[in-house]
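CO-FOLDING WORKSHEET

Operator: S.A.
Ligand of interest: zinc ion
Run index: 415
Mode: holo prediction, single chain
Checklist:
[x] sequence pasted
[x] SMILES validated
[ ] output reviewed
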Amino acid sequence: MFRLNRSAGRTPFLAAPFPSLAPPRTRNSRLKAHLGATLWAGLALLLPCSFDAEAKEQPTLSVLVTIDVETSSGCTKAEGCFPPPISDRILGEHEGVFYGTPLIMDLLEKRDMRGTFFVNAYLDSFYKEDEIRAVVEEIVQRGHSVQFHAHEEFRCFRYCKEEDAACRKSCLKNDSYLGGNSLDKQLKILEEGARNIERWSGTYPVAFRGGSWDADRVTLDALRILGIPLEFSLSGFEHKLADQFPVNRVTAQDGITEVPVYLYRQSTPFKFKPRYWDIESGTFLEHKALLQEALDSGLKTAVLVMHSFSFCRRDLGCPNQTNIDRFDRLLAFIDAHPMMQTITTDQFLSQYRQAPEKFEGSGYVPSASYFLVVYRSFVQFGESWKHATFICAHVFAVLIILVAIAYLVRRVYLK
Ligand SMILES: [Zn+2]
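OUTPUT RECEIVED:
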């Protein structure tokens, strides 16, 4: 099976216990956390977003805004592979306006913030190098960090015609993959990618994120040999690195520091579903509540996931104003909060080497409140059948309860 960049990275995680460094959670403590999250959600709706920015002297929560810069390989069995142009999924060009990396940088820079752009290091297998270099150079010149993202499946375009799906399938199976591959092969693939990033950005990368989060223990060995100290692929309880590193806690081991994506549990009617922090999902109130919970529970580092196409929809194109507004409000919230700051991977690395305890944190995995999940479906009712079904099911359940109450009242009082 070919991996599609977006969908493959969004596999839902299954809930599984992990030996977190946070205090063990009993059923009662979990219920309390749930109630706490719900209470905070209610307050978040009532309270205006205002803090004294002057008081930002000792921020305790560092937020890394990370943007995966990539196009989809767009493969189907029937049609082969036709990646869209760079101007589409990376620059987000629509009617002369750029809603991709340029707008993401504009919004960050508006508040004197900078992000980390994880660029697919194998784009040169399909696109002209001058075109890639122009994108990367702009990011660097504007003061952002460029790091190493590996969609190594793109390497197959060197050997296969884009319409030849069978050739690509064979290439992916036999050669161009990381997780599960030998150290020699991973080293070859990763060194090639690291050198590409160095050539395009002018700086050898210090951080790595696997395409579709793909990375295993052997990848760590290869990164160590290649001198890339930061790993950003751990994104859930089921990840291949989750038995080696805790989620939600920056942890160093044998020369590699794992910086996990911020993970939380989302309440559903029957269970908590693990999700990672992505600008494309949730409402602003959910993001705000998650950040406050991170702060309250002793997390020190929170990694936000974005893509170069986060402000465009696959079906409707650019712009996706809802996502743009959500990101802008999130940055405003962090900017105004006295205990939060945004940093890039370069800043993170130099500060972490000085004082690792400032970034390690509790490893706690917070729970997003059920109330906010319902609220999200309510405000996004018309955007997908899932939201509409979720709300309709709740309305139906409330009606059933009301009818049942009315029936009981009638039986008791109107005998
Ligand atoms: Zn990716």
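REVIEW:
The longest strand covers residues 61-69.
Residues 1-27, 44-50 have pLDDT under 50 and may be disordered.
[x] output reviewed
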